[in-house]
Amino acid sequence: MADDADLNLFVQWRHASPGLWKFCPLCQASLTNHDWDGKSRRYCSQCGFVYWERPLPAVAALVYNVEHQEVLLVTRRYPPATGGYTLPGGGVEYGESVQDALRREVLEETGLIVGIDSQLGTWSTPSNETLITFFLAHQIGGNLNPGSDAMETVWFNILKAPRLAFSVHEKVLELFRARWALENLGR
Ligand SMILES: [Zn+2]
Q1: DSSP string for residues in the chain
Q2: Regions of the chain where pLDDT drops below 70
Q3: Are residues 94 and 165 in the same domain?
Q4: Any domain includes 24
Q5: Tell me, what's the pLDDT at 50?
Q6: Tens digits of per-residue pLDDT, 133-155?
Q7: What are the catalytic residues?
Q8: Is 2 part of a structural domain of the chain?
Q9: For residue 179, what is the domain's CATH number?
Q10: How many domains are there within the chain?
Q11: What distance in angstroms lies between residue 29's CA and the mean position of ligand 1's atoms?
């Protein structure tokens, strides 16, 4: 029996390509292929279940401290990119808004309660398997206490933050730095 840490290596939420779906999750009949809108999809002829292949929705937070000009990063506990720095975030649960998902993920990973300032945008990961909506946020409560998928939580000066493990996170941080530089021009 795998312990909780081992289990987490197996249950990382990830995309399973249609070919990996052999049996209907509802009635256990063998799945076949059926065309909808010119695209073949896994289908159960017994009960009508269709496997609609979709990207997974996720959120990430750029938690910024205006006074100290610092951004909060976490290091990853699990693959991919174990030990790498990222913005805190994770998957949106069914029935949860993106804003609620963001506040929950930041609290789970960093111990901080955050208020949301703005939505920075939504980007696809390079594989197009995940859609990440990024928010600018700031601390309104809590205390730093790494947990869940995060090993450590570290505040970095906005200009001295290390390169992030995920290219989309890095792009968003670079966009924020560019905006920050414009706003601080001539001060
Ligand atoms: Zn079925």
Answers
A1: ---HHHHHHH-------GGG--B-TTT-PBPEEEEETTEEEEE-TTT--EE---PEEEEEEEEEETTTTEEEEEEESSSSSTT-EE-SEEEPPTT--HHHHHHHHHHHHHSEEEEEEEEEEEEE-TTSSEEEEEEEEEEEEE-----TTEEEEEEEETTTPPPPSSHHHHHHHHHHHHHHHHHTTT-
A2: 1-15, 186-187
A3: yes
A4: yes
A5: 93
A6: 999 999 999 999 888 777 899 99
A7: 152
A8: no
A9: 3.90.79.10
A10: 2
A11: 5
